[in-house]
Amino acid sequence: GQNIDQPTEMTATEGAIVQINCTYQTSGFNGLFWYQQHAGEAPTFLSYNVLDGLEEKGRFSSFLSRSKGYSYLLLKELQMKDSASYLCAAGDSNYQLIWGAGTKLIIKP
Amino acid sequence: IAGITQAPTSQILAAGRRMTLRCTQDMRHNAMYWYRQDLGLGLRLIHYSNTAGTTGKGEVPDGYSVSRANTDDFPLTLASAVPSQTSVYFCASSDSAGGPSEQFFGPGTRLTVL
Fold first, then answer.
1. Shortest distance, CA A6 to any CA of chain B (angstroms)
2. Residues B35, B43: contact at Cβ < 8 Å?
3. Beta-carbon separation of A99 and B42 below 8 A
4. What tens-digit pLDDT sequence spans chain B (114 residues)?
5. Cβ contact (<8 Å) for B100 and A97?
6. Interchain proximity B90–A33, CB inside 8 Å
7. Interface check A45 vs B, CB under 8 A
């Protein structure tokens, strides 16, 4: 079957670093996406990994290990505006996205 | 307009009524999608269209239908609404020629079926 697992909720402190993990199991694999979704809003794209390794984009980085079916999103220098849900999604053999339930990140001052 | 729009923003509907959710994009993307998002379940694909004139079923298609008469529009119809269709509905599009790519989402429609 196809499955995406990520923690339901995480809490971190403003200015700190947080790592959100995601494990996936799909029929075929065509890349791993991370999206950010603020409460009451639509998801917005953060990153895409198709090869193993780390992709850095400002304060956000995303890592992929295809052999382990594992990815993480790393957020540095946390700001209050980073309070949101972070959605992990894997592309399957039909190029459809299989979505995790999302990780709600709570930032405390 | 720029991007992807949905209408209505929200709707309260009596069970048994027919309802069409509208979605329009101006990015000339070939692929479009309809998702529903329920608390604790994440986004679930209802129907998709890889190009104008073609549609396909996603994970949860029962009770929904779609059409794709042109590139820009992708309406979702609930033929006879039931309370379990209460959800937030997101339309998305992508330029997916040759592989997966970033999906752009509309603002969503919050639907309540009583």
1. 11
2. yes
3. yes
4. 579 999 999 999 999 999 999 999 999 999 999 999 998 888 999 999 999 999 999 999 999 999 999 999 999 999 999 999 999 999 999 987 656 788 999 999 999 999
5. yes
6. no
7. yes
